[in-house]
Amino acid sequence: MEFDVVIVGAGPAGLSAACRVMQLAQEKEQAVTVCVVEKGSEVGAHTLSGAVLEPRAMEELFPNWQEMGAPLTTAVTQDNFFFYTSGKGAIKLPNIFIPPPTHNDGNYIVSMGNVCRWLAEQAENLGVEVYPGFAAAEVLFHDDGRVKGIATGDMGVSAEGEHKDSYMPGMELHAKYTLFAEGCRGHLGKQLIKHFALDEGKDPQHYGLGIKEIWEIPADKHQEGLVVHGLGWPLSESGSSGGAFLYHADSNQVYIGLITDLNYSNPHVSPYEEFQRWKHHPETLKYLEGGTRLSYGARAIAKGGLNSLPKMHFPGGLLIGCDAGTLNSVKIKGNHTAMKSGLIAAETVVEALSHGASAPADLEAYASNVEASWLHEELHSTRNFSGFMHKFGFMLGSAMVWIDQTIFRGKLPFTLNDTVPDYATLKPAAESKTIDYPKPDNTISFDRLSSVFLSNTNHEEDQPCHLTLADATIPLAKNLPMFDEPAQRYCPAGVYEIVEDPSGQRFQINAQNCVHCKTCDIKDPAQNINWVSPEGFGGPNYPNM
Fold first, then answer.
1. Three-state SS for 152?
2. Pairing of the two strands 467-469 and 163-168
3. Which of 178, 359, 380, 448 lies at a 20 to 30 A Cα distance from 129?
4. By C-alpha distance, which of 282, 203, 208, 281 is closest to 240?
5. In contact, 524 and 492? CB cutoff 8 Å
6. If you average pLDDT over residues 25-46, what whole number do you get?
């Protein structure tokens, strides 16, 4: 199938790009065809976000979004920021100690899944073809090296690689330009970065693992519009960094979560268990007691910022949104920046298409268009965040961020680089303090398998494993003796296990549990695990996330 533009991923970046391409094409009276493919069973199925949305990009895309019924209805009414000193204590930080970008005046607590569903409706109304359930499995190239498009994965292939009765071959989708908007650690984006050396001269990307739940809480404990952020315990006990959030949405629901930076050094750390511990802190527990857990999910977050941002253009296409890593770590927000990257991509693409046969293969104008935008201004002003936090630790790093953002407004006359990739930060298990995580009480804290159940995760059982090992011996021969095989703990879905059987130990991959967070692809110390796309429709089905 031939299109002018193919977009991989129906998240905020991809859908914003799709809508804007059609808007501009219609304004210019250009005939442009746009197709969006999404691996989730529906738009929003794989969208996991806090989320507090800054509406800046939405206002640019749809200035009358309120009249159009966009699902941005819960305005932020109050900001609280805590430093958790221990499992019992916390200090509420005065606003003066909170960097200005972190304040949420004018922002909205939203379900980004629902925002994406709404954006998809607008895209289809504008003439975009949106295909959920189609996983982009392969990048296609022209003979001259330009990206030609993508191929979707075959359906109905058995675990042994044989065609089942339900076999349906994948489709090739060709385009003048292909936009990759897969989200953090997109598997095609990862390939493209390597293929075109897009990260040459850049810091390695840095990541966090965000784990989130939705709770329905008693009405007398609910404060619609309240935003709570926190730093410190429990991550501070292992010298790890990250932070927690608790957002009071509408209908007596709260979105809660913990982000664990994946540069942690202690291989005994389990981000999932850290999150379960945090829920028992009195400042969290006071909202959750008497409530009901409705949903669970997890997703990696690209948070390296400008220093880790690869070149986003290459012959035949663009990387946009979190596939490149446009999140603003200081704001703890990436949706508005992802949307803006999509808007700029659309403007660049439509301008190029207007030149017909003389349109450039490599959209080099995208780089200058980004640099001239508020997106670059934001990312440049927060470029030192990862360096401060990773080099100086939580206390001193936070102080440096405050000085940088509050006094200098992100204009310190230097750039602090962080050149150690997250997978290379682990210390040997023998040199690290073991962590005795408490058992779940099944009221506030829960085990991983019951959590995965709430994510509505499902994969066709008889299909090739989408979690592939470059060397099957490494988990037991190297990772286990050196790091106590950290995949057992960093995976928030219980995918990886060391199993004892009569023949000895074996490394088991429970691929059906996978929530597509990509942590294993990021944190494995041997870089031995490669995440590839499973069959379309597979993975989590997040309601209202």
1. strand
2. unpaired
3. 359
4. 208
5. no
6. 97
| 448-531 has the same fold as 2-66+113-204+305-381 | no
Q: Output the DSSP codes for 195-241.
A: HTTTTTTSPPP-EEEEEEEEEE--GGG--TTEEEEEEETTGGGGT--
CA-based radius of gyration for the chain:
22
Question: Amino acid identity of 261?
Answer: D
Which residue type occupies 542? Y
> Would the pTM of this model clear 0.90, i.e. be above it?
yes
Q: What is the dihedral of CA 466, 529, 545, 77, to 10 degrees?
A: -170
CB 234 within 8 A of CB 260: no
Residue with tokens 């209908």: 251
User: What tens digit of pLDDT does each residue of 188-227 get?
Assistant: 999 999 999 999 999 999 999 999 999 999 999 999 999 9
448-531 folds as Alpha-Beta Plaits (3.30.70)
Give the count of beta carbons closer than 10 Å to the beta carbon of residue 431: 9
Check residue 414 and give its pLDDT. Answer: 87
Label residue 99 left, alpha or beta by phi (over 0 means left) and psi (-120 to 50 means alpha): beta
Q: What is the pLDDT of residues 140-175, one digit of tens each?
A: 999 999 999 999 999 999 999 999 999 999 999 999
CATH architecture, domain defined by 2-66+113-204+305-381: 3-Layer(bba) Sandwich (3.50)
Please tell me the distance from the alpha carbon of residue 385 to that of residue 372, in angstroms, as a whole number: 22
Q: Where are the domains of the chain?
A: 2-66+113-204+305-381, 385-422, 448-531
348: Cα separation from own chain's centroid: 25
CA diameter of the chain: 70
The pLDDT, as a whole number, for residue 401 is 87
Inter-residue contact 523 to 24 (CB < 8 Å): no
Q: Which residue has the tokens 């022209």?
A: 142
pLDDT of the residue at 238: 96
| Torsion angle (degrees, nearest 10) of CA 512, 516, 522, 528 | 30
Question: Under a CB-based contact definition with an 8 Å cutoff, are residues 327 and 334 in contact?
Answer: yes
